[in-house]
Design brief:
Elements lengths: L5 H18 L3 E11 L4 E10 L6 E8 L1 H9 L8 E10 L6 H10 L4 E10 L4 E10 L9 H17 L2
Antiparallel strand pairs: 1-2, 2-3, 3-4, 4-6, 5-6
Length: 165
């Protein structure tokens, strides 16, 4: 019988929670992907969602389990296997001026983790457009005991989407 990995269990719970919010019209799921990378023997799940009433910003939650964690769990050589979490908030604007309030909120919420801001300019024949990408890489691995923390992260993303311009 198939014994699901920590990755499978976290993915199912996170995906179910986010789709429940979508059904309740709290958020709108925009995209999802589930990768098995045979070159690095890793797994990645990404789900992107946004505010039901606004096009931008949108949030992406990524769960990744690298080959060390996968093999350690399957071979039972790691005591507490886990997945790594990344959160991305992205806005599309006509200005390169980023949302300082949003950046401050992210730093206050997740100050112990790596927070980066990327501003990318798209220049076409007639317009200039900017993508503001706020990225949070959580420094610790999340296991099955950390499900409440993951749902807490999703709830914070949802409230950040509500307050953004």
């Amino acid at each position: 019988m198939f014994d699901p990995t920590v990755f499978d269990n976290l993915k199912v719970i996170v995906e179910g929670y986010i789709y429940d919010l979508d059904i309740e019209n709290v958020i709108k799921v925009l995209n999802r992907s589930d990768f098995v990378d045979l070159a690095t023997m890793s797994r990645t799940f990404r789900i992107t969602f946004g505010n039901e009433k606004k096009k931008s910003p949108h949030a992406m939650l990524e769960i990744n389990m690298n080959h060390e964690q996968i093999s350690g769990e399957l071979r039972q050589t790691i005591k507490k296997p886990g997945c790594f979490i990344k959160v991305i908030l992205q806005e599309e604007k006509e200005s390169k001026t980023y949302d300082e309030l949003l950046l401050r909120k992210l730093k206050k919420l997740w100050e112990e983790h790596s927070i980066q801001l990327f501003v990318t300019e798209e220049v076409t024949a007639n317009t200039e457009f900017y993508y503001h990408r706020y990225e949070v890489n959580f420094k610790r691995a999340y296991g099955e005991d950390d499900i409440e923390d993951l749902l807490y992260i999703i709830d914070h993303l949802r409230s950040l989407l509500q307050c953004c311009k």
